[in-house]
Amino acid sequence: FFTLKGLAHESKLFAEDGKDIKVRSQPYEYYLVGGEKVDFIHVSIRLLAGRSADQKRMLSLHTQSKLKRLNLERASITVEVIDMDSQSYVKEG
Question: What does pTM read for this prediction?
Answer without folding.
Answer: 0.78
